């Protein structure tokens, strides 16, 4: 029985061309980019080229790109770094109830240190309420952080509208674009975002790498102390082979973005079509919202997340609840709890399926058949 991977929102397989680029780098480019000799200069040239590739992908300047160890560090640097550098302007932060834990836990930690946070609600389609954001804005608000695409539902948030709203406010605007990057066109100046987070391993690059876009006028304090790498915003010798792999993944994602979008849309539609043809009862969480095609979150009435995931895995289908697994039990999804209620059955019967490089039409169809068989058995 062949295993089928439908959990690309968690991580993606590294693209073969990325592997080749990284392998070549490990062999040929071992210099420290901070060194002044020829080996260091060669490494610096490669690093600068990678930074330019990252910057062009969001129509930014290479000076605005900070390489990090991933999306979590980038979120923490954006949130804590900005708040710490601007604390004389105020101590109020606005975020949403559906953010990734890298954002939520960073904000919660700031609350323990004297800051005040407002957590915006979302409607049943998973959208942030712009009017609620308007009401929540205060003179002492120094940061608004709202994700671009939700990692559990794939729902696209109104980032452009929020950018317009904040244009004349002192608050900096950060967006976690980890799930959006590679699926949606991103132009930071048009969106009017001040900080933007990207992760390598979500776009078929290596794990342990990401970048943070920081607009030129943003005051930001480093979280770590050491050398003067990354314009003193993120000290530590750069992970050169991973950065080279990340740059290759970015190029591939940019070149193939529209094709991938259409392909994953076709996979999603076929998957749902087969479930319907097999008389599986399900609903789509965030069905009427604008969503990226690579993520679909389905509620199966009468089922249980743990039983579903266990049986899917035994049948060779890898999926996710999209929520945290603690001490062997799956906690109710904080995203779905915010969309519906903590008592809603959706929080404990929903599964996230996400499509990507490991899929083709045949294995998506096969996965749908296996899922249909299991759901019908468990909900009989």
From TrEMBL:
Pfam families listed in its UniProt record: Aminotran_5
Domain Aminotransferase class V: 4-365
Superkingdom of the source species: Bacteria
Assigned EC number: 2.8.1.7
An example molecular function term from Gene Ontology annotations: iron-sulfur cluster binding
Top EC class of this enzyme: transferase
Catalytic reactions on record: (sulfur carrier)-H + L-cysteine = (sulfur carrier)-SH + L-alanine
Alphabetic keyword roster: Iron, Iron-sulfur, Metal-binding, Pyridoxal phosphate, Transferase
Annotated coiled-coil segments of the chain: none
Cofactor: pyridoxal 5'-phosphate
InterPro entries on file: Aminotrans_V_dom (IPR000192), Aminotrans_V_PyrdxlP_BS (IPR020578), Cysteine_dSase (IPR016454), PyrdxlP-dep_Trfase (IPR015424), PyrdxlP-dep_Trfase_major (IPR015421), PyrdxlP-dep_Trfase_small (IPR015422)
Family statement: Belongs to the class-V pyridoxal-phosphate-dependent aminotransferase family. NifS/IscS subfamily.
Protein name: cysteine desulfurase
Organism: Gracilibacillus kekensis
């Amino acid at each position: 029985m062949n295993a089928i991977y439908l959990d690309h929102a968690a991580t993606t397989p590294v693209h073969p061309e990325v592997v080749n680029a990284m392998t070549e780098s490990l062999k040929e480019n071992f210099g420290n980019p901070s060194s002044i000799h020829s080996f260091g200069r060669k490494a610096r040239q490669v690093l600068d080229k990678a930074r330019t590739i990252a910057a062009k992908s969001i129509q930014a300047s290479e000076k605005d790109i900070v390489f990090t160890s991933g999306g979590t560090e980038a979120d923490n640097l954006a949130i804590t770094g900005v708040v710490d550098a601007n604390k004389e302007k105020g101590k109020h932060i606005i975020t949403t109830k559906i953010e990734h834990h890298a954002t939520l836990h960073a904000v919660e930690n700031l609350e323990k240190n004297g800051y005040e946070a407002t957590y915006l609600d979302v409607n049943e389609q998973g959208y942030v309420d712009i009017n609620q954001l308007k009401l929540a804005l205060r003179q002492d608000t120094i940061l608004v952080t709202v994700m671009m695409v939700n990692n559990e539902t794939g729902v696209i948030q109104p980032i452009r509208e929020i950018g317009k709203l904040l244009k004349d406010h002192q608050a900096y605007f950060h967006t976690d674009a980890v799930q959006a990057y590679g699926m949606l066109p991103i132009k930071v100046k048009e969106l009017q975002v001040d900080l933007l987070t990207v992760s390598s391993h979500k776009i078929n690059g290596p794990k342990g790498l990401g970048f943070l876009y920081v607009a030129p006028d943003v005051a930001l304090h480093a979280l770590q102390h050491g050398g003067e790498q990354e314009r003193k915003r993120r000290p530590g010798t750069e992970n050169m082979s991973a950065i080279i792999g990340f740059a290759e993944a970015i190029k591939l994602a940019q070149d193939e973005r529209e094709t991938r979008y259409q392909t994953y849309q076709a996979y999603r539609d076929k998957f749902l079509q087969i479930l319907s043809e097999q008389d599986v009862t399900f609903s789509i969480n965030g069905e009427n919202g604008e969503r990226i095609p690579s993520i679909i979150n389905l509620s199966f009435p009468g089922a249980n997340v743990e039983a579903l995931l266990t049986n899917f895995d035994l049948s060779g289908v890898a999926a996710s609840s999209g929520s945290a697994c603690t001490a062997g039990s799956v906690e109710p999804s904080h995203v779905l709890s915010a969309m519906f209620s903590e008592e809603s059955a959706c929080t404990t019967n929903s599964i996230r399926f996400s499509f990507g490089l490991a899929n083709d039409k045949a294995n998506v169809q096969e996965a749908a058949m296996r899922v249909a068989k299991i759901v019908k058995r468990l909900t009989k």
